[in-house]
Amino acid sequence: MSTLAAAVYVYELPVRLWHGINALAIVVLALTGYLIAEPLASPAGEASEHFLMGYIRFAHFAAGYILAVGFVGRIYWAYAGNEHARQIFMPPVWKAHFWDGVWHELRWYAFLAKAPRHYIGHNPLAILAMHLFVWGLLFMIVTGLALYGEGAGQQSWQFALFTSWVLAAFGDSQTVHTWHHLAMWFIVCFVLIHVYVAVREEKLSGQSMLSTIATGWRTFKNNEPIDDAE
Amino acid sequence: MIETFYDVMRRQGITRRSFLKFCSLTAASLGLSPAFAPKIAHAMETKPRIPVLWLHGLECTCCSESFIRSGHPLAKDVILSMLSLDYDDTIMASAGHQAEAIVDEIVEKYKGNYILAVEGNPPLAEDGMYCIIGGKPFVEQLKYAAESCKAIISWGSCASWGCVQAAKPNPTRATPVHKVPGLADKPIIKVPGCPPIAEVMTAVVAYLLTFDKLPTLDKQGRPQMFYSQRIHDKCYRRPHFDAGQFVEQWDDEAARMGHCLYKMGCKGPTTYNACSTVKWNEGTSFPIQSGHGCIGCSEDGFWDKGSFYDRLTGINQLGIEANADVVGGTAAGIVTAGVAAHAGLTALNRAKQADKQPGAE
């Protein structure tokens, strides 16, 4: 048996940290966001004894800010970090080999290809999916801050930077709420697929997945040639 | 001799005392300091009266009904005499050709110097034949009057957004004033609401006439002083919202106790208007105070978003009745089923391969 390809350090600490914080923030945001649109049963007694909606909204806003700050930090790291840190922000859509990789990955998921190709970073289909997710995140951050600015008032920076033009672009506040809610479901769908394929690739492909996002190191289980996503 | 606002008011029998009271009231309702009251009085005494042309297109006259019921009788009397409503086909005395002649007269006499108030909107389909005023399509009268006006006030949700006559599929192509093609490029003040609050209407007219400039408008063209906050922000039931205490049914205990109407589809959190502060009918009440949620009547598109009693409103683009949870929940369900099926197929595939190659892996 030939020697296995050497392990590669792919995901630097800021990327792994972002991934973890994002995951937690998204769970909190999706749950509290759903409860804001469809509130829990009313507590009995005087209003002064309770602050249920207030706490749920606070958790939503706090997690939203963490997500937004993390996003800004991650954009910086795409510039400052290694080549893998910018992979999901700039898919090489102008390269034929990239699309060949996407096609192969699709065939692999359709049980038509015998084995997936090996990649050091993400596979091309994953790059596409995560790129779409990045836009989803950005949409949620922008509409989220716009909705927050409505409550914060016209003198707030959130209103000046986001609410003013987002409300005008969507026409009215209710439409912004509807799209913000709809995009939550898009992210839920992404998470479902993301977790499934990560576990599946860990088991079936020749490269490590779950341990890579925890430690940053990519290891290989066999000695297949390594493809370049580009 | 130029006729001033003050002259007109005195002629209408308004005393100087009432006139000064009105000036203070106007300053207060516009959010100005008391020092502005004498300035308003001075402007009224010296500036020539600006005539107002009040046109009616496709509408229900609820704006006029609201306007003439302006809570404060003082403000109403003064402003009605100030406007003296040179042309308003609902309440003016003349009729027929004489009435229509007034439009020509004002346009000629006060070229570039009158305010055009529009209630309702023009239907554009069939060259505007769905709304005929004095034998001509309303859209022609509107364009003609807009050509020489100083500024346009779009009264109500019809003129501002389109409202129910513009609801899908909008067979007459009812079109809000600012979207009418070929309309002269004049400043437009939108005063949405179905109808707008009477005090808001009178204050907007008073501002225009006394300061001779437009009030500060937001990005959607509404006066900021009345449309910068949501009903929800100043709602007296807001503490129940924060506590999470909601009316669940129209006849439950929470409804009697006056809890938050959010779960009953109240659009207060997405509606910019002054109802929860100015209120209606001399400050007597407003929809939420009388136990019904806000329907968002001053927001663009409120008539086309499904039930007034749902918090999540309909998504029309899909051609089916659905809200965000129906669409998103269905998508998440399909994805979950897809993932489960895919996982099953993967396991089956692996089992088959293991059978074919015993010993491998």
From TrEMBL, chain A:
The entry's keywords: Cell membrane, Electron transport, Heme, Iron, Membrane, Metal-binding, Transmembrane, Transmembrane helix, Transport
Matches recorded under Gene3D superfamilies: Transmembrane di-heme cytochromes, Chain C
Transmembrane intervals: 17-37, 58-79, 125-147, 159-176, 182-199
Membrane topology designation: Multi-pass membrane protein
Record organism: Methylomonas aurea
Gene name linked to the record: cybH
PANTHER family from the UniProt entry: NI/FE-HYDROGENASE 1 B-TYPE CYTOCHROME SUBUNIT (PTHR30485), NI_FE-HYDROGENASE 1 B-TYPE CYTOCHROME SUBUNIT-RELATED (PTHR30485:SF0)
Record-given protein name: Ni/Fe-hydrogenase, b-type cytochrome subunit
Residues in Cytochrome b561 bacterial/Ni-hydrogenase domain copies: 10-206
Protein's UniProt keywords contain Ligase: no
PROSITE patterns in the cross-refs: NI_HGENASE_CYTB_2
Keyword Transmembrane found: yes
Principal subcellular localization: membrane
Subcellular locations according to the entry: Cell membrane
Similarity annotation: Belongs to the HupC/HyaC/HydC family.
SUPFAM superfamilies: Transmembrane di-heme cytochromes
